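Sample 3 of the quickstart, ligand adenosine monophosphate:
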Amino acid sequence: MTGFEDLKLIDPLLKAVKTEGYESPTPIQEQAIPIVVTGRDLLGCAQTGTGKTAAFALPILQRLYRGGTPEGKRPIRALTLTPTRELAAQIGESFSAYGRHTGLRCAVVFGGVGQAPQAAALRRGVDILVATPGRLLDLVYQGLIDFGALEVFVLDEADRMLDMGFITDVQRIVSLLPEKRQTLFFSATMPAQIRSLANNILNDPEYMAVAPPCSTVEMVDQSAYFVEKPQKPDLLAHLFKNNELRRVLIFTRTKYGADKVARHLTRNRVRAAAIHGDKTQNARTAALDAFKRGRVRALVATDIASRGIDVEDVTHVINYDLPNEPDSYVHRIGRTARAGAEGAAISFCDSSERAFLADIERTIRMHLRRELGHPHQSPKTPPPLTDLESRVGSRPSKPAGARTPSTGARKHFRGRRGKPKSASGKQPAK
Ligand code: AMP
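Result:
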């Protein structure tokens, strides 16, 4: 098995990955690091959750460290552009963690918060900048940013940039960068517009594709609780009596619903916070931080607010309201299977949400395990699944058409966390 030593990383980085608890590189790191250290451009088809950040951050840190720190004010030598504030903050944290023994400085700039501390950091000088496009352009137009010394440019989640309408901003930013640079381009999907953007900004790139560590639907223990709307709060409080629900992400359809659920949990002495678009960026960051540090046990979110949240060790995802889009369901439950770890997803389903459940099950090609006999069960609960149906839904059988895990990824991530049981403490039916 390849170790980080085999990737010819310098000691300060080897020490840092050890501190992070990484035992061996993930498949994307194994593939990308040797390419990036040579200075070549890279087109990577890879998702968040595969270890992508370290795959680009480690070789960038190595390059800058080896280049030595220039005299005087430090010029920006590496820029990472990413679509969301949350991702920017996470990538910045990763650069700081992996670079903790290098003396290199990293700053993060994104909108929705005051600009003064970001501008002050830029005035002091940084080696590495992580940014969302809008705020970066604001700072450029104010003359606070000079890309004259830029060596490496990373475009992260390019397809999401497109979805979120940032492509013109990205193009504008690229036009400000020196022609002679190394460019690393990552996207989970490669629609035509993204391929053409890649063609324009990459120079003879190496191409690399990494499947997600494992199809999410296989890794997550998924169960459905039939409960009518008025009883949902009581069922939620009941579930939280189980200590295995340590770090729980709860999804509601509306912002109002998110606040209401958080208040209800707090009244039931469960530490909870809500995160949604009506909260200020500072309130969102504080809630996310409290959740990451384990100061709150439950984070209640709407779909939009949850984008890009990468919190390790989310033990359970609860769909307080079922989404009407099966894709949102897959996205939501993916929050508990980060980096190939296993997790549990609990879905509340009232009579009006039955059709959503059917849609989801059709899409993921398996049945959610029915959790029957709980104290708040709906009188309109449908009949139990047949033996055959429940076998299809039991873990770890692979649903027809599920993606094959990339080689090594699943094995690699095994054992990072114990297997969570279902909320009721029972192991899923075999
Ligand atoms: P990313 O795809 O960069 O968002 O990384 C997903 C998660 O995997 C993060 O929580 C990282 O801390 C974690 N991770 C990255 N590389 C490794 C590794 N080599 N071993 C174990 N965990 C890792």
